[in-house]
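Contributing: when you submit paired examples, paste them exactly as shown. First protein:
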Amino acid sequence: MLSTKETGVLTGRYLATYLGVISAINDGLRGSQPAAGMALASREEANLRYALSLAFDCGEYYQGQLIADTLRDYLERAGRRSERDTLVAWVRKHLPQTGDANEINNAVCAAIRQHAWSLFEQGQAQEALAQVQALLEKLQQSDSSPFQIAITQLYLGRIYYHTGRSDLALAPLQAAITGYEQLGEKQQGNLSASLGDLANAYMGLGRFDEALTASKWALALSREQGSDREIAAGLGQTAAILMDTQRYAEAEVRYREGMAIARQVGDVELETAFLQNMGFLYHQQGRYAEAVRHYQSAIRLFQTIGNRGGEMRTCGLIASAEANQDRLDEAMVWYARARELAVQRQDRRHLAITAQNLGILYQQCAEQADTDPAARDAWLEKAVALMQESLEILLEMQNQPTAAVSYYQLGMLYGMLDDLNAAEQNTRQALAIWEPLNHPHLQKGYDSLMQIARARGDEKAAVEWERKRDAKQAELERLRRGG
């Protein structure tokens, strides 16, 4: 029988061996050979789980957290979300619990952040925010490392963005970027991640030039590091910005390049996101059959990996594509599923978006009931109620760009109900948000105001709105051609 000392020596050797293994896995996953990293992690998974348990039993929490972080990364890339969430919760539960800021070590910080992100992805956004904010306050009140403060700010900004508060995301993300720049070359990976999140926040605010600048900087850093997965993610983000500015051909090139890399490295999560985004790109161009095919492939993968948020968003996208093809009954089924998932996840932002989309669908039902005035008006009134529901939530969340869409749609609906004053008022509210952003949707807003002016017999105003519409349309055409 081994003595306590001998057992301790053997335990130390075992942990040292598997710290070497996770170093090799991380070099692959976060470098230029992620497929090799995934293969090694798969072979060693059982041993890594044993090493994790052993480290915690011995009180080696920092070493245990390093092993847990590698396992979490592997499970996430493999699309095994429920197992990842179970792992993160286990680590959080088994770490020493302390309220003293001076006793919060690196392992505890990482566990709190990862547990918060896991809660967020399960629909518990407020609890996730509370955990990260509390951690950041403790770190800032103590003599904590600039690295821990920066990465906690990154998580805070990321959660704000994904809850529809891009405005609140900017400050912590910019603070994280400043922190990582000061920490030097070793933090280029985290700097790239922070820039990517900043680009997302700018995009959420309709500030596309700033978004593209941040995204290109992030992608350049990823290329310097040779991290294939991050290169793929950066290409996808740049493509999304180009798509939002209607530069479709440029966006498709980047999406295809990014998806090829995601498949090559075996990252199921990233591949699924690319399928969804490619579907949306085709959707935007009216290529509905191709869009639905990509969406359905994405949903199958989202269901396989247990990503309910991705499934929810894709259900809404399929519904929209079906509605664009006048398949209204099918669209209602998909929107009902999206709404059901949003309620389950307590996702108010997506509840607002689904209400907005259902309002547009009811508008289409009204257009098809044109020969039955009573039925037509009933559909329009239901559409107005849903659009107002979405607007109320979006304004409460201070999500101005998406609220502008609700204002615009209300303008359309009131115009169909012959309430021209309400139609103009709501359309002008949309323009008040879009014009400072020079948003592509301005073309639609100008066109609506032109039609309202013509309905009133005000040809002078109609001509002026038409001039603005045509100028914006010409600008968008130049962008589509890459000019």
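Second protein:
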Amino acid sequence: MAAARKTFLDGLLYFFNVIFALLLLGSYLAYYVPSSVTTVFSIIALGYPVWFFVNLAFAIYWLIRFKTKVFLPIVVISLGYMHVGRLYQFGGAEKVVANDQKLKVMSFNVRLFNQYDWIDDLTIETQIVELIKDENPDVLMLQEYKKTDKATAKSLGFSYSSFKPNRNGQYGLAIFSKFKIEKSEAIIIENDSSYNNQFQYADIVWKKKPIRFINVHLASIGLEYSDYQLLENPDTENQEKLEKGIKSIANNLSKAFKRREVQIQSVVHEIQNSPNPVVLAGDFNDVPQSFVYHEIDNKLEDSFTESGQGFGKTYVKSPVPLRIDYIFHSENLHALNFRHIKRELSDHFPITADLEWRL
């Protein structure tokens, strides 16, 4: 009787293992399948950290039980081995580089310096300004930047800046630099008036070599306030309302995935036609298992996978370690000391990396 119960339990667990293995495989497919074909895999990929760790737990369980079922999670995890390093980096000790040999880059979605009091703290803008001054980057790339008296180039410690506003001209993208900006431009990537419809670049000479810094903020995840309320507190008693809410979330996510697929093609075109090595940074609103990441991955190097430590979580609200902010760079450069700074001053964590020219 006990043996029969154990066999039934193993069968039930294996059934769930198969489901989570399929979800993990689905998240791999998001890297290769454009959202214009289907957004199913893109949505599944948002749960990659969960699917990975559940399969890892199954692998450990079957291994302890000496069951051949262990091959399912092991094979599925192995098929996506390249994604593991995009989720977690073991890294090492911080590498010390002379200040005149490294270029420190920082990217941060500052969410309008908390203009609408998303965080119940009136000192957020002051804290952001102080954080930037403490980090002391050579080049700073901000998304959702709003011109204020506190957050000017001078107050942040920079000699040069390029601000490319959207909509009503009050907020948008900004690049600040300690080195002269030789040229800057905003590139429209969609023919509408939406907030995320452009990116900017600035050409900066460092150590006698020009670098094109591209600052991006791709289409937001697309969820509305009611969607977040549903995710945090689902009304399981009202089935009709729940189903309607889930469909709304899936629809909003799908629209955003398709927008980012279109937007990233303009960014790729800029990278390919750049006369200079490129540093691409900003808020991509997409995970490393996405098609958007795939389009950049085979052209530039990811500073996190090159020099990060631990989980690269950059989206504050997510209960799982979602990484949607990046610092990419051309192969002419080498990244050291990638960090995500765990300060909840926005809905994104700021990120930094030290860059140096490859010998």
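If you have annotations for the second protein, write them as plain sentences, like these:
The mean pLDDT is 92.
The chain has two domains: 2-79, 100-223+249-357.
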